[in-house]
Amino acid sequence: MILDSITPLLLTYNEAPNLVRTLAPLAWAREIMVVDSGSTDETVALARSFPNVRLVVRPFDNHTAQWNFGLDQCRTDWVLSLDADYVLPPAFPGELRSLTTDETVSAYFSRFRYCILGRPLRGTLYPPRAVLFRRDRCRYVPDGHTQMLHIKGQTAFLETRIDHDDRKPLSHWLWAQDRYARLEAAKLAAAAVEGLSLPDKLRRQRILAPLIVFVYTLLVKGLIWDGWAGWYYVFQRTLAEIILSLRLLEATLQKDARP
Q1: Is residue 151 within a helix (H) or strand (E), and if so which, with residue range?
Q2: Across all residues in the chain, what is the average pLDDT?
Q3: Is-above-0.70 flag for pTM?
Q4: Between vectors from CA 80 to CA 78 and to CA 82, what angle results, nearest 5°?
């Protein structure tokens, strides 16, 4: 059975508001690999309360190294890579059971349903992600503030969407966004323009991206119809772009500053 050949892998750091909702739907897994970065809340105790969790604490240096360390700890052919705020719906294990072991497929991508405090949104900017993959054909590489999975071989898509439902406080989100913006600004500043995607080219302009994201999420994605949860997401994504623009502007102004 393919489920016996899959190890869910999670990275954690102070994920107590999310972790139980993420781990509970993984009861089918023989072992869940959790790599913690030294949490100071109840994360470690909550993880150890699940009998199928194997937890290792590793001091954090960067996301790429942390994910690859986690891959090295897994003992199955397949890895299910999950953020600690992903919640698998009941249909997900059934789809995994139905997968054929096609040797040409190295990774499966999943799409997401974004939630704000449990309220699902009709649209999101959150991209599909390779979540299920063969451990011997995939490795993480750096990509700005995050990491990207380098895949050797063909890919396919899973049908069942995963819920992204982060319940950590807004203060944590604000702290994380500034941290991400610093790394993303450095990536954009160092990259050749011709090698950038259209969204990153717009971000390099410093002015347009926040305006476009506000209009696109509110009207094109239809979040204006999702009530206050929709507005919350629109403001979050717009503010994230504003913070990145501020970091890009700061770098420009520092370079041009007089002694």
Answers
A1: strand 146-151
A2: 95
A3: yes
A4: 160
